[in-house]
Each structure stands twice: as structure tokens, then as C-alpha cells.
Amino acid sequence: MLSALYPEFRFLVRKTEAATRARRGCIITPHGVIETPAFIFCGTKASVKGLSPALLKEAETQCCLANTYHLMLQPGADTIQKVGGLHAFMGWNGPLLTDSGGFQVFSLGYGSVADEIKGRRQRSSSVQQISEKGVVFKSYLDGSLREITPETSIQIQRKIGADLVVAFDECTPYHCSRAYTEQALERSHRWETRSLDAFKAYNDGKQALYGVVQGGVYVDLREKSARYVKESPFFGHAIGGTLGAIKEEMYRVIEMTMNHLISAHPVHLLGIGGIRDIFVGVSLGIDTFDCVHPTRIARHGGALVPISLRDHPAREHISLKRASYAEDSSPIDPTCSCATCQQFSRAYLHHLLKAREVLAITALTLHNVFFMNRLMEDIRAALEKNCFTKLCHKWQVSDL
Amino acid sequence: MLSALYPEFRFLVRKTEAATRARRGCIITPHGVIETPAFIFCGTKASVKGLSPALLKEAETQCCLANTYHLMLQPGADTIQKVGGLHAFMGWNGPLLTDSGGFQVFSLGYGSVADEIKGRRQRSSSVQQISEKGVVFKSYLDGSLREITPETSIQIQRKIGADLVVAFDECTPYHCSRAYTEQALERSHRWETRSLDAFKAYNDGKQALYGVVQGGVYVDLREKSARYVKESPFFGHAIGGTLGAIKEEMYRVIEMTMNHLISAHPVHLLGIGGIRDIFVGVSLGIDTFDCVHPTRIARHGGALVPISLRDHPAREHISLKRASYAEDSSPIDPTCSCATCQQFSRAYLHHLLKAREVLAITALTLHNVFFMNRLMEDIRAALEKNCFTKLCHKWQVSDL
Q: Minimal CB count within 10 Å: which of A289, A362, A397, B83?
């Protein structure tokens, strides 16, 4: 039945680790294969900041995502469809994912996405009205009122044309009560079912739909949501919404959710992408991750480095803005074979950042993308060779 | 005698056109050969906006320049020397040029460089004092007082380590009286002689010094200055300072100057780089050009195009910010083989500009750099095949 809905997609699990739930697999899409575990890079407005498709490929990227919320507002889904869909628009011929737009609708407007969902602030005032039908929100571009419903989200994602698409849900923030979270969850499930119906109505076999597990930090709600998603004909499962305000809570929520979610479907963890987080996620059975983290820190001078080059054991990147790098003629990481480490010294990158040169963004983003892809490749290789735990130790991750 | 001063440099003229003074030659430097006529791209702060050295090479760039003024203030010449010189610092192994710092000292501070020198405003107040010794100016970064003299300019350029370096002069703006221009010119000649002395004192054979012809729009002063430069042991000759407020005046000043300057030395025209300007310059015997124009317009959405794609016969670029490109799925130029035209549509570039994505800068800069390099290659090929005049007609340039 699922293969009828998604004729051009398959998820294969090649191997599952004995000691954990970590698994080595692949997602087959019409635009190529994603070897898993994999990291998906954020190209919010149909561009991974500063990187051309050629550079993304050079950095061994498998899959990118774009945000439906941003693209529906500008340039608009119709425009993207008219010029041949997102792949042609971006010049990226590999697999692509779009989210439903829900996360940004509920979190953008006045402040950063992460602040909202990670428990640092109250719900944004960009949401004007939530009803059974959908959400009325204010555009972040011009403040105009827009509506998004499960049906329009799927129609927009159809026009945009990514390979992997996501059902529309309500993304409840950290500060919500249990009662509100449960009520929103029930509505989200109804919205996700409507998303499925809308998906089926125009299905051309070129897209695969992911269902999203919500439920905030409430373990029984996560279980309920995992059950709903597993029992519905989604191609993949995603874990969304708030996972807690601190790492330990987040890992616990993911673990409790995965207890009820693990199956033959690929599982995507939305918006999580620290190095330690990825090791924990993989060990719990997560197949794909996405996060703005590697590309966002790049824009602020942060370069991901191996343990041996860290300033502080728990800090996963170094900040090249620091004056101590001003005359450091070594590359970010002498063992890294990315174009940035092959060409540029820390001194030059420090200078570019200080001079606010655009090349700093391109060069550091390229390094971080390459770093994440190499990390995922190392994880996949370790899973193949039954030495994932050893790799975790190498990276000093002991939360497993 | 010159070959003793510049043992690793040579300028060869292979062919001079019969109908004009246009010539096909090459400048041999320790970091490679510059085939002339050539365009030199501005990497003000040791970076051509958004382009890595690999992309610059891919766009067939021969030579870049960096500005001594900017680099002496940040990161500082000592830092560049410590990390191995400008070539290593930038990761660019081809020929490089630095200017003397004079142009920016006299024009930066409060407003754009071009405004000052092209007659649109009075002398900047960043200059605090001009004396026989040199110039005291305010740093554009922090307002601190700095001094630059012929000797320090050459010492700084020595530390930076470009192949081609420029003597220190006073760059008089358009609004100067004839009397002031003449007085400044005489002092510039004394400064240039001191530059030569400073150059000789530490000459290691790895750099070649250009003398600069000043004299504003006054033809007899240009003649006097051309004579001084020709009679001094400079490797190359540059035409600097204000050339007038309108194109016709500029072409006339260049022509009058070239009447007295033409010789076996390479001639560089400082800061001029429109398409029509280049055809006129080449026909008058100019060998190399530099200008921020191609890279600056790129940052504002301007893409250089052939005559057939222009919006208006006299407008050398199209503006991709225009709404009419929003759904245009063709590349900037279907005949262009640059990476941008191979990968991206006008619609996508329009979107990137509107979304203020960094990739817009990289992609458009790459196109414009490639465009200029292809134009110069076409000019060189036409000179070789004795059809330069035909190429001028093709580009509808009739000022020759």
C-alpha cells in the first residue's frame, strides 16, 4: 500500500547496531539516494548561505531543505513552479526536502525561531488566529495577513516540488500547558490526516510525505502521537516541536518517542544538529537530521573542529573572530581536506571576518558543511564496521 | 639598466595595430604571465568580493589588486608579511598588484572614492596635513591619525609583497585649480623619485615599480608628468588622478597623455573599466585596466551583457533586481559559459537579490569577472587577427 503511494521512494535498512538502535540505511528518491544517517542542510530561501550547488556537491552534500514559509511569501510557489520547480530553480539536482511551513508560522515574526521553540520566549505574535481550518498569520516580510491550512501547505509543497515533504501540524512551544499541548496535538493529527488526503488527491509519485510526532515534553502525548503517525500511511516519520530546554530533557524526550516510533520507516529529527546531539540521535535510531547550526555559526565566524582542536571540551567549534588567530598561518584543521582548509589560513579567515568580507561566509560555511558530511560519513562507516561505540568514545560522547 | 632593477619582469609587445595604437603584449612576473590588454580585478581588502581564488581562476582571471590603504590599516602589513605575504595570505598564486595607498588617503574618509576623483565632491576631510614629507590622514576604521610617506608606502608594499607596486603620489581631485594641480604635481614627482629610491634600497628583484602620471585635466601638466615618468627608471607607467567629469573629457585627457607616454613600457589606466572605456583605452595604447565597476555593480544586481541583451544601447549591464526578471527562466546570457549562466536563471538571481542572499553576490561577481575576462580575450584575439576595429564596431564603439 505504501509503495503504491510512493512508487519512486524506498527506505532500506542495511544494518542495525547490536548495542544501540543505530542503523545504517538509505533513502531512495527520484533525485538520488541519501545514505543514512545523513545531515540535511538548511537552504531556507532556496540557497544554503553563500554556497553554489557545485560547492555543496564538492562538500559531499546529499540533501538540502528549503522552508515553505519563506518560499510561499517570496518568490511564491507559483513562481517556482513556473520556472520548473525547486530543483531547477536552485540548480540543485539532488534530493530536496521542504517543511510544512508550520514551524515558522508559529515561531517567526518577532525573534528567532530557536528562541521560541527552545523555551526561551513566549509564542510569537505573528500568529493571528488558530482554528480547526488552519492558521492566519502575519507575513514576516510586510506584515500582511496570510492563511495556511493543511491543504494549502501540501499544495504549496507540491508546486515547489521537493522530493520529501512534510504534513502540516501545530508546533507548540515549551511554555504550553499540558492541556493546551494535548488539545493542539489532537488538532495536529486531524491536520496531518487532511495533509495526507490533500497529498493523495494530487499525488504524482514524485514526492514522499512525512508525518510529524508532536506532544512537547509530555511522554504520554509523544507516545500517543508516535502511535498516530505510525498507523498512518506516511513515508517517513519526523520528530518535531519542543524537546525541552536542556540537552538531558531533549535526549529523554527523543528516547521516549523512539521507544514507540521505531519501525521500517525513516525517522527525521527536526532542527537538531550539534555533534553530541547527532551521536545521541543516531544511537536512538534517528536516520536524518537538519539544523541551521553548522551554517549559522559559520556566518558568525564559528568553525567546527575535531575534539583535539577545541578551545573547551564541550564547545564544538572555534571562533575565528578571536584575536589569537590574527597571525595563525595554519588552516582551521590541518586534517581537513575541504577547499577552505586547503586554501586559507586562520589568519586570513580572521581578517575576512573582521573586514566583513562575503568570502568569510562562503569559506566557513563550506568548511562546516564538509565537516558535517565527513562526520556523518564516519558514523556510517563505523556502523558498517560495527565500531559505532568506539567512534562515540573518540568524540567523547557518553550519553548513550 | 631597467632589467637590473627588475630581473624577473619583462614586458613584451608582440604586435601593434596599424590603424590605432592598440597593442597585444604580455607582462612577465614571478607569479606568471599577464596577457595584455588585460583587466585587473579589485580585491580591496585582499578578497575579490565573494570569490575564492579557485573561482577567480575558473573565471579566467589573470591578475588581482589589493589596496595598500586598506591593508595597512587592517590586518596591517606586518601581519601579512608574517603569514607569508599577500599571495599566501589570499591563497592566490597568480600576479598581484598593490597601489600606493595615495588614492584612498586622498579620497576616502567621508564618501565614496569615485565621487571624489570623478568631480562630484570636494576633497575629503580625512586628509589632515600634506607636507613635503608626506600625508597625515585619519583612518577610515577608527579615526586615528596615521602618516604615509613615499618611503613608508614602498616599505608597506614590500611587506605585502605584490608583484606590481606603485609609487606614492598625490591624487588631486577634479575641483583643484591649475595652480594647485601644478604644485601638487611637482611634489608628486619628488615623492615618486623618493619612492624609487626607497624601492631600490630594499629591492629583491621580486617586485616591479610603476610610476604615475598626474596633472588633472590640464594637458600641458599631463605632458610634463608623462615626460617625468618616462625619464625615470619605472618598470611600468600608470595614468592616475582625475581625468574629467564626462567621458569625452576623459578620453581626450587619456589621448593627450598617451601622445607623450607611449614607449616600450606597459601602461596601466587606474580605476577605469567600462566596456566602451576599455575599447577607447586599448585603441590609445593602454595595456592594463583596473576598476571596481564589474564587481561593484554585481553586488547591486548588475550583470554585464553583450549589446544584443542590453535594455538600452548605452547601458552596459542589466539590473536583475527588476521585477520583469522574476519569472525569467533563461540565464543572464545564453551564450555565456560562466558557472553562473550554466547553473542559474535570471528568476533565481532575482529571487536571491530580493532575499538578500549572499549567493547573489558570488554568482553575479563571478559572471561579471568572467565577462570582463572574455571581453579582454576577444580584444586580444582581435588584435592578433588584425580585426580590432571590427570588434569595436560589433560593440558599437565609435569614439576611436
A: A397
